[in-house]
Specification:
Chain A has 313 residues and is mainly α. Chain A is built from 12 helices and no strands. Classes of the chains: A mainly alpha (313), B mainly alpha (218). The interface between A and B is medium-sized, with 20 and 23 residues.
């Protein structure tokens, strides 16, 4: 199996499943809260509807506002192409250096912030300010987490870090700290509880929703799709750090039996990941914004502990 | 199945440490006791995997005793005592969550540097467990120093005890069963006494904050 084909398979699979992941999280959450819940594939319908709708764009916006959805969407697609989500050793895996990944993640956040600011609405500015505060606190933790994985695996690319999969936890158990910190970071990066509430438009709480408030039609569809991609990427990445690599494609080891295992495995990872996320969001409350620094410094210190233990043990 | 448990040994060791580190930014009584139970269960599994690896039958009763006494009885006893005393579920600390965790991580680093100069480090049965035991005891001491309320100080003491138990596992490995039984009964007795004492403190002062015990009253 050629690495290029693996990249194509991964892209098709993850790009296709991203809206379903969001739908699954919402469905699980509704069920856990005793509601009926919409069908998990509703986001596909919602995206299709948004794509057909007319756009209403404020006259005070500049070209930045129109550029933002493309950049945000492109960063999501780029991450899907380079990261080891469904296969390791794919064609673009050499680009998955953790500095680059952190940079691309930040690029998406920064452009979303610019989009929020450009419309000059009060909500947009508020959301942007909050997002930048969170992003600047998340960044050191991201580096500390991936540095620990890099030290443990001897690879600077995330592809190399994932190549041993969950077995790395047995060889270097201190990575458990880094993994927990990564979960905390993933919640912040994806604007989920306890950092942000993805289901509300209350001005006091929203961060991500405040920035995209001015978008409509196809642009909104792109931004929403990008956030779905980001969630799927993080869920799969976290799963790949914890389970053995037999659920991942690899160019050198290719069997027909393995194909089914990988496909079913990927679906199960998303299913389990979205269930756990929904469970977490049902059982905890959103944090006050001014307590955010505490939450994110906890994430950073736990990541630092993981890095120190990996270095010294 | 049992062989798998022995493979998971490093993971148990880290969970043992992780629970005590995570206890530092935990300010709810129930979560704190849950973390203590988690740490004790990890210690029991660690002893169990040592027993499987070395094929030493003496360690099995110790693992079971740790699981039962420290993993179940003591957390249950303390939960009950706290509920009866009617104290606040919110614990008091001199430091906020993030700084106290930072201090703990700094202590982990200091322990890692110290361990390289210990005279008996080379002869220890397991260097990892030796490090973890000292780190957990250190975290327990920090918890006793940084926390202001009686219950956290009790749990801090129990974490120190867990660290010492792991220390003996790393250095001596097998201890006569009679001594182990003695240690378990002392820990149980100490916990019941401390629970009683904290109940009295709560009754007399209406608070579990130790700061109020420092002042002389009529």
């Amino acid at each position: 199996m050629s690495p290029l084909l693996l990249t194509v398979i991964q892209a098709v699979l993850v790009l296709g499943l991203a809206p379903l992941t969001v739908g699954l999280v919402r469905w699980f959450k509704a069920r856990l809260q005793g509601r009926q819940g919409a069908v998990p594939w509703l986001p596909y319908v919602a995206l299709a509807t948004m794509l057909r709708r007319e756009m209403v764009i404020s006259e005070s916006t500049s070209w930045v506002f129109r550029l933002v959805p493309f950049v945000v969407c492109a960063t999501g697609v780029f991450l899907v192409l380079i990261l080891p989500l469904v296969s390791t050793g794919s064609a673009l895996s050499a680009y998955s250096h953790f500095m680059l990944v952190a940079g691309v993640l930040a690029l998406g956040s920064v452009f979303l912030v610019l989009g929020g600011l450009d419309s000059a609405s009060a909500f947009g500015g508020m959301g942007s300010s909050r997002e930048m505060t969170i992003a600047s606190l998340v960044e050191p933790a991201v580096f500390a987490v991936f540095a620990a994985f890099a030290v443990a695996s001897g690879h600077a690319t995330i592809d190399g870090m994932v190549q041993t999969g969950g077995a790395a936890l047995l060889v270097t158990p201190a990575l458990l700290f880094s993994l927990i910190a990564l979960v905390l970071i993933a919640l912040a990066e994806n604007a989920r509880y306890p950092v942000d509430n993805p289901a509300t438009h209350l001005e006091l709480t929203m961060v991500h929703e405040a920035m995209v408030l001015e978008y409509s039609g196809p642009y909104l569809a792109m931004v929403e799709y990008a956030s779905a991609l980001r969630l799927t990427v993080f869920l799969l990445l976290l799963a790949n750090f914890t389970v053995p690599t037999s659920f991942l494609f690899h160019p050198s080891a290719w069997q027909t039996g393995a194909t089914a295992a990988v496909l079913v495995g990927t679906f199960l990872k998303l299913l389990l990941g979205s269930f756990l996320l929904a469970l977490l969001e049902t059982s905890i409350v959103k944090m006050r914004f001014y307590r955010m620094q505490e939450y994110l410094s906890l994430a950073f210190v736990i990541a630092l502990a993981g890095l120190l233990l990996t270095l010294f043990l | 199945m049992i062989a798998t448990l022995a493979v998971l040994e490093p993971l148990f060791a880290v969970v043992f440490l992780f629970a005590s580190v995570l206890a530092m930014p935990t300010f709810r009584v129930k979560s704190l006791l849950r973390l203590y139970a988690c740490s004790s269960i990890a210690l029991a599994l660690l002893i169990f995997s040592f027993a499987v690896r070395d094929a030493s039958g003496h360690l099995y009763p110790l693992a079971l005793g740790t699981l039962f006494v420290k993993g179940l009885v003591i957390p249950a006893l303390l939960t009950n005592a706290i509920r009866r005393s009617g104290a606040s579920e919110r614990l008091q600390s001199s430091l906020r969550a993030a700084p106290s965790l930072f201090v703990t991580v700094a202590a982990l680093l200091v322990t890692a540097l110290l361990i390289q100069h210990l005279p008996f480090a080379a002869s220890a049965a397991s260097a990892h467990v030796l490090y973890l035991s000292i780190a957990v005891a250190f975290a327990g001491i920090l918890m006793m120093v940084l926390r202001r309320d009686v219950f956290s100080q009790m749990v801090g003491f129990l974490f120190i005890e867990n660290g010492i138990a792991a220390f003996s596992l790393a250095t001596i490995v097998v201890i006569p069963v009679a001594i182990e039984v003695g240690i378990f009964s002392i820990v149980l007795l100490a916990v019941s006494m401390m629970a009683l004492l904290s109940h009295k403190v709560q009754e007399l002062y209406g608070t579990s904050d130790t700061a109020s015990l420092r002042e002389l009253t009529d």
